[in-house]
Write a structure and sequence with these properties.
With 394 residues, the protein is α/β, with parallel strands linked by helices. It has two domains: 276 residues, TIM Barrel; 98 residues, no CATH class. The chain has 15 helices and 17 strands. The strands form four sheets. The protein has an eight-stranded parallel sheet. Strands 13-14-15-16-17 form a five-stranded parallel sheet, with no helix packed on it. Strand 6, helix 10 and strand 7 form a beta-alpha-beta unit. Helix 8 runs parallel beside helix 9. It is globular. The two termini are 37 Å apart.
Amino acid sequence: MDFSQELTRRRLLFDGGMGALLASMGVRTECPEELGYERPELISGIHSSYKDAGANVIITNSLGMHPVKLAKTGRAENAEKWTRQAVINAKAAGADFVALDMGTTGEFLRPVGSLSFDEAYEGYRLVAKAGKEAGADIALLETMTDIAEARCACLAALSAGLPAAASFTFEKNGRTLTGGTPQCAAITLGAAGAMALGVNCSGGAQAMFAPLSAMLSVSPLPIIVQPNAGLPITDGGGNTVYPDGPEAMLPHMQTILDMGASAIGGCCGTTPDHIRAFASLDLSAPPAPAWDGQEYICSARAFIPAKEALSSSVEIGEADDLYDLEDGECGLITLDDVDDIPAFLLEAQMATYQPLIFKTDDMDKLACALRLYPGAAGVVTSIPSPLPYGALRL
């Protein structure tokens, strides 16, 4: 079965949490990904329990497998072999699909942090390639906190031949940790080539309503929703527990389906019992489309209808001019006048939250700018379609 085609036929049920479940079993480790290699029967057993509960998509135990993340505990050299084993463990459950879990690096990309796009990209590509070779069906970019990093991971997965679904977690203010909106996450990852979007972790199931609605309003892509079992609390023994049981979550999961989610599952604190309860819901019919067909360009924090972009644009000569852009405006940058495009784009991200439009007939310059731009850019050009990286011709 093809994953994307199956999403048009029925709604899929993903599995539930892994880390909190291991903790509740008394398993303590500084590197959960290592367990898949050192104790494969333990991880395979959990995967099988989710499949038996009704999950038809099993997520690998590989959330922190990026070499940059593994390097924090001196395990970076294990990324490839552990990824392959993680997929083998998940496939052993016999579910319809295996999703390769790819989480954050634990670092911020430049200019917010010090991690380069290329270093993040190569690490994600290494993991995605190993997962693809081992038989994963999709890459699930999960619990993403930064649109730029999620986009980088998506491009890397696609370059390794693995379709990607990008799932974000949002703070109480409705934005990612680095300030991205659900709409901009959806628009950016759609342009990057993601085959599905997602919302996971965050708070409980009710916390999924707002970002789900926002994503549905600007994107035609299927959306996967995997909430925590409520916000974690500490019990009398000092243990972290999640308060929402299966029955408490069930009506909210029904609302999520009614709103238009294409797939559901669970994140932190959810168990096979939660997934068994979710399996009782009607997952037979795919949702009706909610997107009105309007296209947008965006940065990580602001978006504007493509049909309004040029009329709202301001020509930019120097990066410092971007500081003067106001809400609702776009910066129009003639790339032929830019000597160092990577450096310019780093400056641009610090100077404005507004979307950018690139003008050039030089394919090399355009491809360089679009590869690095952490949004969905508009383009003014005579270069024939299609344009690289999902950019919109204005």
